[in-house]
Amino acid sequence: MNNYRRLSRPLVFMLAAGFCWAASAVDCPATSGLVQMQTASRTKLDVSKGDIEIGASHISGISPEGEKETQTNREGYHIVGETSEYSITVAAGADADILLENVNINQVDEDVGALRIEEASQGDVTVTLKGHNVLKGGSHCAGLEKSCNQISCVHAGSQCSCGTLTIQCEKYKEEGHICNEECGTLIASGVNGGAGIGGGDGRKANRIRILGGHISASGGYGSAGVGGGYFCEASNVQVTGGEVTAVAGEGNVAFGGVDGSEANSINGDCIVEAGSMGGAEVFKGIWLNGNAGTIHGPVHISEDGAAGILKDRSLTREDGGRLILPEGVSWTVQNTLRVLSEVSANRLRQETQTPSSNSENSEGSQEKETVSLNAQSASANGIYGQTLNQLEVTDAAVEGGVSGTWSWAKEMNPDKTYPIVDGTVSYTRVFTPDDSQKQEIRVKIRPQISYLETSKEVTILSPRSPDGENGWYRGNVVLEAPDGYQAFHSRSVGWVEELVVPDDGGSGDYEYYLREAGTNQTTDVKKIRLNIDSLPPIVEAATVTYVDSGVRIRVKAKDDTSLTEQVSGSRYFYCLIKPESKAKSLGRKAVVKNKQTKNNTTGEFTYTGLESGIQYRLFVVAADKAGNLSEVTEQVFTAQ
Asked: How far apart are CA 411 and CA 349, in angstroms?
């Protein structure tokens, strides 16, 4: 049926045009009075039903109806589905126009990228975002992988043959479009050397353009959020629209790459949050770094976009740049932009207007009668995450029996989530008398905010049990929020159902928060005990001492603390001696499992019966408490 639909479209066009062959309908010249019809629509594929591979001359995938698709479609591909088994690959040399709609691919337990463009591909790939999309790469892989390790691509000025990855929202091409809350979202994350968007483990990145959408990208250890993989550079990475949050893995930068990166830029009506940048320059846009940022050039952003990502930030402007201000954002006399609470914004407006409440207006009306109240009786209490209308409010007592109604001031926007929990912000309640001749009353209330109390906690999703020894984990640990909740921690990208604890976390109490879905009520900080050590120890020395009865070997080792000082310790030592004439290099597991190997916790071994004058080879391996094995240290000595 699908093949019939594809063949029928050129045929319809042929009849309408009257003279173009069906096979070449798309190449027909425009003709007066004739309307060209679209020759094909996107091929729809469901990644939950199997792997999707898009090649230059054929594809492999399954439609939502379960039909196998093999024909390429130059109009593009519409991909849907959620999976932890399958992934998307764009083969080398293939051009592809991909629409992702509510796609969720989680490969954290595998060595597979969620959406991978084959390395150094010369094809151009466009990814258009619709709805909420999640791409979680597996070990050593990026979430959305675009690697380019060609020598010619090391420098931006050279002739790079790698294609371009373009990421955009569905509405990008609409005239005057500025991304708002309705634009598509992408959350991309890499693991163990993989960028969120960009290079895989040990891979550079080149030619990535972000034109729109709400994008959050976090890199694994040693990699960028958007840019290079494990300690690698990236060039020609550009953002010209949308909102981008980039979080670096330790050792790399959030946006761009390490030394050698160049021609990375921010240049457009966009907001980029990146704590560090490599080889990058901001020409136009808003760059956020922590609680501060800078506006470059005249930037236009949507009210919806500014309200969230600019909240509680201080911004300066560069070169006289001007911002079209969203609601709740105002200039201060220090030439600084700050997102204000609704009360502060209202106060600022009042301070810049001429008071008129106690004087006769232009039409000659007399001032209204003042109403008194006991403001001390006003209070509001709630749980972090509630809206203003959900707070438990005790309104002030009005004196004299004046009837009327209490409500939050209009500028409070009661549907907006309560934004601050530290007790420093007040909101305004308004008493409106039934008698229009009496003046309204405005009372400031500082809500007392507590946290949601629940015994619910995250559970360990993967690995199901410690994959190391003595209760230790030897890699990333994935935590799962309880049913009906979402979790958050300082390195997660927003509130999520699954938290990835990177293997550089070490041992200790891991902090996180829970939020109840639907109500947005949030707990105070919770803790889970995790012991993680993925780094093997290092053999520092193996000393051979000759004694009367033979040789004594003392082994010294240290923990690898390049990621964290919280390591498992409590080492174990393995020692093997073979005649040099019969010895060959052995791997660490071969040494440990050899039947002639001696082992103990002290690292001291005595050998007797060695033949004088004969050369022997010494093999040493150290192990930590988590079961990580060091590299094999080899040494040749002559028995005396």
From this structure: 11
